[in-house]
Amino acid sequence: MIKNEAVRDHLILEDQQEEACGVFGIYSNDPDFEAATLTYLGLYALQHRGQESAGIVVSDGQHLAVHKNLGLVSHVFNRDILEQLKGRIGIGHVRYSTTGSSLFANAQPLAARCSRGMMAVAHNGNLVNTESLRIRLQNEGSVFQTTTDTEVIINLIARHSRDSLPNAIIKATAELKGSYSSLIMTKDTLIGVRDPYGVRPMCLGKLSNAYILASESCVFSSIGARFIRDVEPGEIIFIDNDGVRSYHLPKVNRRALCVFEYIYFARPDSNIDGINVHLARKAMGNELAKLFKGEADVVIPVPDTGVSTAVGFAETSGIPYDIGLIKNTYVGRTFIQPHQELRDLGVRIKLNPVESVLRGKRVVIIDDTIVRGTTSGKIIHLLRDAGAKEVHMCVSAPPITHPCYYGIDTSVRKELIASSHSIEEIRRYIGADSLTYLNMEGLLQAMVPKEELCLACFNGEYPIEIQDEHNDKYLLEER
Ligand code: SF4
Q1: 203 and 343 housed in the same domain
Q2: Residue whose C-alpha is closest to residue 462's, from 388, 403, 378
């Protein structure tokens, strides 16, 4: 089955995991503050987290204004649109659809009028009890216009209209199960919430007197802001005229940051929960090199996420690092291409081999994951066509055997090649001379303790119970 393609560091995206979303919010008390422009720049820095749609909602303290559309940030906004979005508070969102389809109606942030006035929500993550919440709310009279988790969150908050805003948000979020690192905005308040397991990241920063909440810390250097700290799992941060204050949801027994934030979702210049992504990937490369038993003349990355890992691999193995594949950064989206021949051409448009580096060489190629195996096979084919004598595939994660329910668009289980094939079978399928995966010990050595990560893609130990019938498509496919 061919799936929508989306840009990231990858080539043929029907073979890749795709991440959920990126959120950015900014609050200033200065009435002349241009929240829209800074939100636009923040979303630009988060574009790698979603390319289906982009949107910004701003408030001048009285009214909310919104603009959103399908497409990349640079396509959705221009100078005229940003000038019309006047306000000192803003939230923005880049989306890759994980729940709901990629319809315009599902583009975020979602703004709605409720009894406490206008409210907007930008959500990153995936709830595992959306359907049961939606059915309950519909039975109680709510009407839904979209199929997103986000609208469920707005409705839950609206239900608690007699409570103060903090209490309404605490009560509403206490009902959510799953992953969420989301921003909520009223006409005069910016709120950030991170689920108690901390599956998706969120951090707090400052630009002069303005406060910022964002999915990743890489946005701060992009806009000249200062990183303050990570938002704690289960923390709700309120930013308004009185400054910044925190509330906390009931504690759970562990943290469960998605390990793929380190493996490839996040930008290497981001720090997540105190760990720099580039250094984590480099350490994965160090560990991966210890497991590689072959001999080679050169180690090359699949750009861009393989770069840091390949540097670490070269450092430990002593095999020289070089650039053997060039990514065309300016390709942007490619559209679904119906014929295999055209899809193969799509790889060559996005990625080109450097023949003079590869010809006659025994090549180690470093990639971050193998999902279905089709992308790896095509890359290896490219390298052999360019004259590589041997191609050894090294992967900076253990085999992916289980699907994700927390906001990552992995295949259903039967499409995950490692769920039904041995490593030797996968090696033969992708056409590599050898195939080395990082093992769990090496992965954890490179990062934080096991108890702080979600590793369910590798071991099937889901930290948050999967409750809803909307996940049946996965469960049925798994049988
Ligand atoms: S199941 Fe996999 S992709 Fe999903 S949050 Fe856990 S580790 Fe990340």
Answers
A1: no
A2: 403
* C-alpha 456 – ligand 1 centre gap (Å): 6
Torsion of CA 50, 66, 229, 21, to 10 degrees: -20
Distance separating alpha carbons of residues 474 and 195, to the nearest angstrom: 23
* Rounded-to-integer distance, Cα 280 and Cα 271, Å: 10
Mark whether 218 is an active-site residue.
Answer: no
Range of the domain at 427: 278-451
The first and second tokens of residue 260, run together, are 């793929």
Q: Structure tokens of 477?
A: 């496919």
Q: Cα separation of 218 and 225, whole Å?
A: 10
Q: Which CATH number is 388's domain given?
A: 3.40.50.2020
For residue 267, name the pLDDT band (cuts at 50, 70, 90).
very high
Kindly list the protein residues whose Cβ atom lies closer than 6 A to any atom of ligand 1. 199, 258-260, 404, 406, 408, 454-457
Atom from ligand 1 closest to the CA of residue 463: 6
**Rounded Cα–Cα distance for residues 205 and 197 (Å):** 21
Q: Is residue 233 part of a domain?
A: yes
Amino acid at 443: L
Residue 457 lies in a domain: no
| Statement to judge: residues 204 and 346 lie in one domain | no
Q: Residue 125 Cα, ligand 1 centroid: separation in angstroms?
A: 11
pTM score of the predicted model:
0.89
Do 384 and 432 contact (CB within 8 A), yes or no? no
Regarding whether 317 and 196 lie in a shared domain, the answer is no
Query: pLDDT tens digits for 309-335?
Result: 999 999 999 999 999 999 887 655 544
250 upstream amide cis, omega within 30 of 0? no
Q: Are 106 and 146 contacting, i.e. CB atoms less than 8 angstroms apart?
A: yes
